[in-house]
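User:
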Amino acid sequence: MITVSRFKHKNKVAIITGGGKRLGQAIAIALAENGFTVVVNYNKSVSGAKQTINQIKAIGGRAFAVKADISKKTHVQRMVNIALQRFGRIDLLVNNSSVFIESPLNRTSEKIWDTTIDINLKGTFLCSQTVAPIMLKQKSGCIINIASLGGLQAWTQHLPYSISKAGVIMLTKILAKTLAPHIQVNAIAPGTIQFKNEEDLKKKHLPKNNIPLEKYGKPSDITDLVVYLATKSEYITGQVFAIDGGRSIQ
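Assistant: Predicted structure:
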């Protein structure tokens, strides 16, 4: 559906990392629905990226897919340069791409540690560092980092993941101070988000009775806040928003 906000933001350009599946795909589509031209980053999710593009085009939006391993600086620079060459500006970066590997202390190999830190934390840093000069030159821009409840709590079964997301949260605060006043930088820390195509939810997720609101979140719980921060917020920066049904207060 074409809305007023769609016309208002029709000339704005967003880069979404990990836009080929799950939350990244939902964020990309939500931004397209609000008028953004969307650069969908992917590395291995080729079919998912194509699906994201097709869904955006089906609603009359503009989207373009770019393959890049965000843990490599040359890949990130190439992705950003392509976006800039095609669209002339970058208004929004959503650092969504991440890996989630079960790895307690005794099963955290060097490879698992490096992979998790490189994608979740280093990748977020490299993408932010690369778009920052562009946004500073524009004197406007927004960076939204998808952190995790695991960055606020000690998830012993996901040691490197939890540490990487805690790093993303501190990176968010440092970027917010560094890039103010023209660029707003915030983070969203999702709890358990349920996607329609997932099966065996009881085996994969925390029991609902362990969550104060006794339910899982929906993708729209995250995408609505992304859209708000990207289109309406003018006085919020350096903040971390836990969207977790109250789990973080337990």
